[in-house]
Structure formats: structure tokens, C-alpha cells
Write a structure and sequence with these properties.
five-stranded mixed beta sheet, 17 strands, 6-PTP_synth/QueD_sf, 5 helices, 6-PTP_synth/QueD, globular, Tetrahydropterin Synthase, Chain A, alpha+beta, metal ion binding, 6-carboxy-5,6,7,8-tetrahydropterin synthase, 6-carboxytetrahydropterin synthase activity
Length: about 290
């Protein structure tokens, strides 16, 4: 017997890539279970699937930075600054990134690169170990949202969030709809998606001096004038990141989707004060915010 749940959840995360740097991503998760019927004449109660399996997935990869630990471009070491924290050093063709965060902010994937296949295998092993004995098979399908228009990948962190959004390097793959004088503008959408391609979005209020950043000894020796530094304390611990300037947008607000929609609207209005604008900004799949100016 087989039991399926489509659109079980969406995982929003970022991953380290030797070509693109740190990339924000959003994948939809479908689940198929195979097994014998239990004493309730079920393979597994839908409530258990929706709650327990979703919780396992969320704990394993959601709102984390996924690290391909077999890749030579990624180095993870134990923090000498704080208990329960890790240093992460990432080299890439677009620049080098250096992080220091609680260990819960990272997921170590046993592969050379982060792909749907490698993350599927990682999650399958974790989930299957928690399933009852009558469940004999598990098929996960991870898939990106089909977006016929432009979209962008972004990474950020929210220091004021009391949940996992506080992690300084999690992200999303998002579409955007922009209206100028009540008419949708694909030209403006393309511009912003190009501007925010594989971007790290930081808040100016989180900027710190190089002297106060907490990074690995290797990172401190590898920093260049191209790096900018951001750090904050949140309920889960201390978060630090050094980002190459060419992959960075610094905003004058927090990077919630509400304030990012407002930020884009303000930039558009500043360029052409005589026009009206509506920004429909998405945060991953099927959720977002609207700003009007």
C-alpha cells in the first residue's frame, strides 16, 4: 500500500556553492510512503505525516546553510570564541565568505555539492530512521516552484526573529511582481532579479568593524578590502558573516519581506517621484508582502 502527501512543506535555505557563493533556495517537498497497514488500517496517519515528518524536515535543513562537506571549497571547524558554535569558510569564484554561528544554523551534507539528489538522500536517511516498522519505503520528491517569469535567489538573517529566521545565512528563491502606474512592468522585474541574483541582503544596523568580527583564524588572515562585516546576537547565539561586496546589498531596514517590499518601492519612487508603484514581493513559495507608494 502507498500513501502520499503532495506539497507537504517548503524548505527555505541557503547553500554553499564553489561557483555561485552562498545561494538562497526554496524547494517544495512531496512525500510517498510504502508499507503495510497498521492496526488503524493506515500506512501512517496523515496527521503524523503532516506534523512529525514535516518537523523532521524542518529540523534537518529548513532555514539553515547547507554545506557540502566533501567539497574542498568548504571548511567547517569548531569555534574557539563560543561553545556550540562553528566557523565556516567558503571559497568561490565570486568571492570568499566567512561565517561564525551556532552549529544549529548549518546542515552538513555528505557530498561534494548541494543538489536535489544529495539533499533528498540526506533527508531520507534521517526520516526513515524515525518511521514505524510497518513503513517499509519512503520516497521524497524535492522540487523548485515553476516560475514562468524572472526570479532571484537571496540570503539573509533576521536578528529580531525568535525562530529560525534569526540564522544569518538562510535564504529563498523568490519571484516578484512590480507595477508602475497600475501596469505590470516586466522590465523592472528583470532589473531587480538581475540586481539580486545570488545576493546577500544585510541590514546597515548589523554592520560591524573588522576588529569586532568573530571568525576563524584562517578567515582573519584571508579577509580583503572587498569584504564587509555584519554580526548580531540573537536567542540562538552569536552570528557573524563576512561577505564580498560584489554579492551584497545593504538595506536601511531589517530584511523581512515586508520591509524589502517597501525598500524596493522606495527605490522606485525615488527614481521617478511622479509615478506610483506597487511591489508584490515573495519570500520563497506562495507567501510574501505588498507595498504601495
Amino acid at each position: 500500500m502507498q500513501l502520499f502527501v503532495d506539497d507537504l512543506t517548503v524548505i527555505d535555505f541557503s547553500y554553499a556553492c564553489p561557483n555561485r557563493g552562498i545561494v538562497g533556495e526554496s524547494w517544495i517537498v512531496d512525500v510517498l510512503l510504502k508499507g503495510d497497514l497498521n492496526e488503524q488500517s493506515m500506512v501512517l496517519d496523515f496527521g503524523v505525516v503532516k506534523k512529525q515528518i514535516k518537523a523532521i524536515i524542518d529540523a534537518a535543513v529548513d532555514h539553515k546553510l547547507l554545506l557540502p562537506i566533501l567539497c574542498e571549497s568548504v571548511t567547517a571547524t569548531t569555534s574557539k570564541h563560543r561553545d556550540g558554535h562553528e566557523y565556516i569558510d567558503i571559497t568561490s569564484k565570486v568571492g570568499n565568505y566567512f561565517l561564525h554561528s551556532p552549529s544549529c544554523a548549518f546542515a552538513h551534507i555528505n557530498d561534494k555539492k548541494i543538489t536535489i539528489k544529495s539533499v533528498t538522500e540526506h533527508l531520507t536517511n534521517i526520516i526513515f530512521a524515525e518511521l514505524p516498522k510497518n513503513v517499509q519505503g519512503l520516497v521524497l520528491k524535492l522540487r523548485a516552484e515553476v516560475i514562468p517569469s524572472d526570479f532571484y535567489h537571496y540570503t539573509h538573517g533576521l536578528k529580531l526573529h525568535d525562530g529560525n529566521c534569526q540564522r544569518i545565512a538562510h535564504g529563498h528563491r523568490s519571484k516578484i511582481k512590480l507595477y508602475e502606474n497600475d501596469k505590470r512592468s516586466e522590465t523592472l522585474e528583470h532589473f531587480w532579479c538581475q540586481r539580486w541574483e545570488d545576493i546577500y541582503i544585510a541590514s546597515e544596523s548589523d554592520r560591524v568593524a573588522k576588529e569586532s568580527i568573530e571568525l576563524s583564524p584562517n578567515a582573519m588572515q584571508s579577509l580583503t578590502d572587498n569584504h564587509q562585516y555584519f554580526a548580531y546576537h540573537a536567542p540562538q547565539g552569536r552570528f557573524d558573516i563576512a561577505v564580498p561586496s560584489n554579492k551584497l546589498e545593504v538595506v536601511d531596514c531589517d530584511s523581512t519581506v515586508e520591509l524589502l517590499a517597501d525598500y524596493i518601492a522606495r527605490q522606485l519612487k525615488k527614481a521617478k517621484p511622479e509615478n506610483s508603484y506597487q511591489v508584490v514581493a515573495y519570500e520563497g513559495v506562495a507567501k510574501g508582502a505588498i507595498a504601495n507608494v
